[in-house]
Amino acid sequence: QVHLVESGGGLVQPGGSLRLSCAASGIILSIDTMGWYRQAPGKQRESVARITSGGSTSYADSVKDRFTISRDNAKNTVYLRMNDLKPEDTAVYYCNAQGVIRVGSTFDARGQGILVTVSS
Description:
Elements: E1 2-7, E2 10-12, E3 18-26, E4 30-39, E5 46-51, E6 57-59, E7 67-72, E8 77-82, E9 91-102, E10 105-110, E11 114-118
Parallel strand pairs: 2-11
Antiparallel strand pairs: 1-3, 3-8, 4-5, 4-9, 5-6, 7-8, 9-10, 9-11
């Protein structure tokens, strides 16, 4: 079983920055894609950023040029650096990861979520 644990959320003023971390643990042979998505109250879930094992990244238009996703493959950890935060970035942020547990067995795991609140 693969577990993902997020950290780094909290309250920040508009224009501020936060860095989220998400560490994967358990029986893992390899992790392919890792990413972040978010869900604000009353809104649909939105994919924020994704990164492949090779380092290719993609972002939602709403966060391009403000957020940066990165990963440390040795630590099975993905990060999300969020700059110039806006009130509309307020949401619960979840990380997810897809990979291989053993030959012929894959996983698609999600963290428990962490709250980011942008408010003055």
